[in-house]
Amino acid sequence: MDYKLRSIDDSDKERILNWRNSDRVRQNMYTDHLITPEEHESWFNKIHQDKSVDYKIFEYEGRSIGLVGFTQINKLHNTCYWAFYLGEVDVPTKSGAVMEFMALDYAFRELGIRKLCCEVFCFNEKVIKMHKKFGFQQEGLFVKHMLKADQHEDVTSLAIFEDGWAAKRAEMSKLLFKA
Q1: What is the 8-class DSSP label of residue 10?
Q2: Among positive and negative, which fits the CA dihedral 156, 159, 164, 170?
Q3: How far apart are CA 95 and CA 102, in angstroms?
């Protein structure tokens, strides 16, 4: 497979800031203002010290193309939240789905998570549909929850359990990798 997740290092700092500040990424994130270099430096330093987060770079053929973040990692309850995005636009078809597949494997196999949660703006229908295809279930709806472009937007809460991923993994692997 030409895809992989790897740990973030200092050489990724500028690239991640550029991704975070791109209109395409910001439109679907809670933090949608232009991030200053100082804010980014603070965030970057924090993610390397905070044991409740784990960020990974998603690569295709050795090229960094996206970011996966696991946050609020709770070892007592074996839960966490996750978010991801493709930072680059000129990527192979299905790269987002492959990134989700690898993120789920990492969460359940490496982090030992029992339940993986996420929140998605309701207007981001494509990502909600993809999450559900992977086995995520809607657990809640936050009405007019986050301010976005001077308007409060709805957010859906989704989750998948380890056994749910185990049941879907083979099907998704066949779909994505034809193996």
Answers
A1: G
A2: positive
A3: 10
Q: What is d(CA 28, CA 26) in angstroms, rounded to the nearest whole number?
A: 5
Confidence (pTM): 0.95
SS3 15: helix
The confidence score (pLDDT) of residue 132 equals: 98
CA distance 112 to 70: 12
How far is residue 42 from each of residues 11, 13, 47, measured CA to CA in Å? 16, 11, 9
Using CA atoms in the order 165, 171, 175, 179, what is the torsion angle rounded to 10 degrees? 110
Average pLDDT over residues 101-116: 98
Residue 161 near residue 80 (C-beta atoms within 8 A): no
CA distance 121 to 32: 13
Query: Does residue 4 contact residue 59 with C-beta atoms inside 8 Å?
Result: yes
Amino acid (one-letter) located at 60: Y
pLDDT above 60 for 107:
yes
Angstrom distance (rounded) from CA 6 to CA 85? 15
Average pLDDT, the chain: 96
Cβ neighbour number for residue 106 with a 10 Å cutoff: 18
For residue 95, pLDDT beyond 70: yes
